[in-house]
Specification:
Layout: H1 3-8, H2 13-35, E1 44-48, E2 55-57, E3 73-75, E4 81-83, H3 94-103, E5 109-113, H4 116-119, E6 145-146, H5 155-165, E7 170-173, E8 177-182, H6 185-208, H7 216-225, H8 228-246
Parallel strand pairs: 6-7
Antiparallel strand pairs: 1-2, 1-5, 2-3, 3-4, 5-8, 7-8
Helix pairs in contact: 2-6, 3-5, 6-8
Length: about 270
């Protein structure tokens, strides 16, 4: 019996159902981010598992353009492999995920990717990335820049990144990439889309003149108007439907935005 099969037998039926739903969501999210050219040949999406069982993440070698739910690995909160298909191993930056999950019990999904236009804001002595589009109010509490451009391939580096992130919902890693955290996988997808949209809009605005970020009053006003759950559900439904229509994901995957029950950090 495989390690993955043994792991499934140790959890409750509800936990098993949620795990499969999360597997489908993580694989679909990765494929959609790849198709949107937000995530390329490198990067990863993860999801916290219920019952304190660690998190799902793809292997280091699996293509982001062909990921499947059954290929995802389960790692513990120390970044160690617990179960998965034989011969597959976690990405070297697994500690980026494990250390953030340990530091942030409110976070249930993480995406790390390397979007060049967004990374530009860590490469020049110029304007710092700030909310300029309305949905960027998600990052009203700041977009910190982690100063170490190295791969986050040790627990210490992961812990250091988690300190930089603090209570923010996104961070830039200088000359490297981006980190997005959210309450669920659909939220991570939508935040990745809006984060890149905001960075590209600010980059373009810099070409025209002095950038005018959202004011505190504008942020407060739009923040009062936006209903995050409804917005996530709307956009996830759009992108998942688009992926289905393109044949990017099969119909048998469970792509409902909401889980049967929430995942709570142990």
């Amino acid at each position: 019996m495989s390690n993955a099969a043994q792991a499934v037998q140790t959890i409750t039926p509800a936990g098993q159902d949620i795990e499969q739903h999360l597997r489908d969501q993580v694989a679909a999210c990765t494929l959609m981010l790849n198709e949107l050219k937000i995530m390329g040949y490198s990067g990863h999406v993860s999801a916290r598992l219920p019952e304190g069982r660690g998190f799902l993440i793809q292997s280091v070698d699996q293509s982001r353009a062909s990921l499947r739910p059954e290929l995802l690995l389960i790692c513990d909160m120390e970044g160690k492999l617990k179960s998965g298909p034989e011969g597959l191993r976690p990405p070297s930056e697994v500690y980026l995920h494990s250390e953030i999950y340990k530091a942030r019990p409110d976070v249930n999904s993480i995406a790390h990717f390397h979007h060049d236009r967004t990374a530009v804001f860590t490469l020049a002595d110029g304007p710092q990335l700030a909310p300029v589009k309305n949905h960027a109010v998600r990052w009203a509490n700041g977009i910190p820049v982690h100063p170490n451009p190295n791969h986050v391939n040790t627990p210490a580096r992961g812990a250091s990144l988690a300190v930089t992130l603090g209570q923010a919902h996104a961070a830039l890693i200088r000359a490297h990439g981006q980190v997005i955290v959210a309450e669920n996988v659909p939220g991570v997808l939508i935040d990745c889309v809006h984060f890149v949209e905001n960075a590209e809009a600010m980059y373009d605005a810099c070409m025209l003149g002095r950038v005018l970020p959202l004011t505190a009053e504008e942020i407060a006003s739009f923040g009062d108007d936006i209903k995050r759950d409804k917005h996530i559900n709307k956009l996830w439904t759009y992108y998942a439907g688009r992926a289905l229509a393109m044949g990017l994901v099969p119909e048998e995957w469970n792509l409902k935005a909401k889980l049967a029950q929430p995942v709570v950090a142990a």
